[in-house]
Design a protein that fits this description.
This protein is an alpha/beta fold and 458 residues long. The chain has 2 domains: 1-195, 3-Layer(aba) Sandwich (Rossmann fold), CATH 3.40.50; 229-458, Rossmann fold (3-Layer(aba) Sandwich), CATH 3.40.50. The chain is built from 16 helices and 16 strands.
């Protein structure tokens, strides 16, 4: 890392994402990455100098609490309070001047039937010599905070709904909408504020280079490597069958080994870190029932288990009770055999993560299927990667999953360079590790061969 560089990250996302916990954990992880920190333990002067290097986070909404009372005031009465809050947070940051700084805020609010965006407000202020002028939240962030990157945090909407306790009740569908609006605003701000005269990436292939969306159940290492790691570290979208492996611990263990090995070598966008499909499962399981209940629960067994210490939020999956049937039905209904809103949301989110990646790696897309029954989600992800000209790899087990036939994939002809099928019986750990070592070597090889038109400049 460049010791002279200062990193300024704007962290956005709707309510209920535990930003305080997440950013505290990330800051602690950053401390632990610097071995020189331990050398300052008994040196007072060195400790003072070291303070300038520490990561800090600043909450723009800190002075708006209690938030409910703030939101119930008229929008024009909110303007000076919002300006004071965010300008105070940025001023504190500039005064502390840490090496790593995170500005945490909502770019939009959901209140009753409206979306409120402080970014759109013009704010009258008194400048030098008493001259009145206007500014905006946008200009404050651009000119005073000077961010290097924006990042939007997300999590399962049923967890988010239960965390929001400030007298606000938001339906599951409203949370999906808020997530989308917050993401769009973040993309727009990043695009306008972080302008490079000679970008080191292809803007068409990487439209979200400065505003990635990341689930809070990714590990701290992934966030650190994504934001501050070596520029030549490839970003991978991990694709694998989830529904057919979810309920079998042996199958899950194999998938987890794949995920963990990949994460140890690369920046990995992991679709398991956000898992809203159980909501659709509740609907499909009960829609034909004659005794539909008013509320249903998602148990711990419904969520793929991810240990708390492997998440930024430091939270294991919990049971979520009292989920309204009407709300589940609202986002899970599939008119005219089309995909439901929740399934469309899952698909578009996963496609976005592919856009944020350099490569897609599909692990055993025909898992345990002698008749080559392809995982629908994985097939769609490979097709999208092809449409977006993203290089991809398929790890296939012809012994346990059937012979490899490109026509069966119903996709364009595949360059054999990207297929890894020479290792059989991948359910055995030693064979799986051999296949993954081949994958890692091939990714390193092809990375150096790709042009800037297909990949970020490394």
């Amino acid at each position: 890392m460049d010791r002279s560089q200062r990193y300024r990250i704007v962290v956005t996302g709707h309510a209920g994402l535990q930003k305080e916990t997440c950013l505290t954990n990330l800051c602690q992880y950053i401390y632990n990455q610097d071995p020189t920190w331990k050398n300052f333990a008994e040196n007072e002067e060195a400790q003072k100098n070291r303070e300038k290097e520490l990561a800090q986070w600043y909450e723009a909404e800190k002075n708006l609490k209690p938030i409910v009372q703030f939101l119930t005031t008229e929008w024009y009465e909110q303007i000076p309070k919002w300006y004071y809050s965010i300008s105070t947070a940025i001023a504190r940051c500039n005064s502390d001047n840490p090496k790593y700084a995170f500005l945490s805020l909502h770019l939009t609010y959901r209140w009753k039937s409206d979306f409120i965006s402080p970014v759109s407000w013009r704010i009258p202020i008194v400048g030098e010599h008493g001259v009145r002028k206007e500014t905006s939240i946008f200009e404050l962030i651009k000119n005073e905070f000077k961010p290097n990157c924006f990042i939007t945090l997300i999590d399962d909407i049923h967890y988010v709904q239960k965390r929001i306790k400030r007298g606000i009740y938001l339906r599951l569908r409203e949370l999906l909408n808020w997530r989308n609006i917050e993401t769009i605003f973040t993309d727009l701000m990043a695009r306008e504020i972080i302008c490079e005269s000679s970008p080191t990436y292809n803007a068409l292939s990487f439209p979200f280079e400065h505003s990635p969306v990341v689930a809070i159940r990714h590990p701290s290492k992934m966030f650190f490597d994504l934001l501050f790691g070596k520029s030549d570290l490839p970003r991978i979208y991990a694709s694998f069958p989830i529904s057919r492996t979810r309920d079998n611990k042996i199958f899950r263990d194999e998938i987890d080994r794949f995920r963990n090995i990949l994460l140890s070598k690369f920046v990995v966008y992991d679709p398991l870190t956000i898992d809203e499909r159980p909501l659709q499962g509740i609907y499909e399981k009960n829609v034909e029932s004659e005794n539909i209940k008013d509320h249903y629960s998602i148990s711990m067994d419904d969520r793929w288990p991810i240990p708390a210490d492997r998440t930024l939020c430091n939270e294991e999956p919990k049971e979520v009770s009292e989920i309204s049937w009407d709300e589940i039905k609202e986002i899970s209904t599939s008119p005219q055999k089309e995909k439901s809103e929740i399934d469309r949301s899952i698909e578009s989110r996963d496609f976005r993560l592919i856009d944020q990646s350099d490569f897609l790696v599909a692990y055993r897309p025909c898992y345990k299927s002698a008749n080559f029954n392809f995982s629908g989600g994985t097939r769609d992800e490979i097709k999208y990667a092809i449409r977006r000209s993203k290089p991809f790899f398929i790890i296939h087990d012809s012994e346990e999953d059937g012979p490899f036939t490109p026509k069966t994939f119903d996709i364009e002809p595949i360059n054999s360079t990207f297929i890894i099928d020479e290792i059989k019986s991948l359910s055995k750990q030693e064979n799986q590790e051999k296949a993954l070592n081949i994958l890692i070597d091939r990714i390193k090889e092809i990375k150096s061969e790709l042009t800037a038109e297909r990949l970020r400049n490394f």
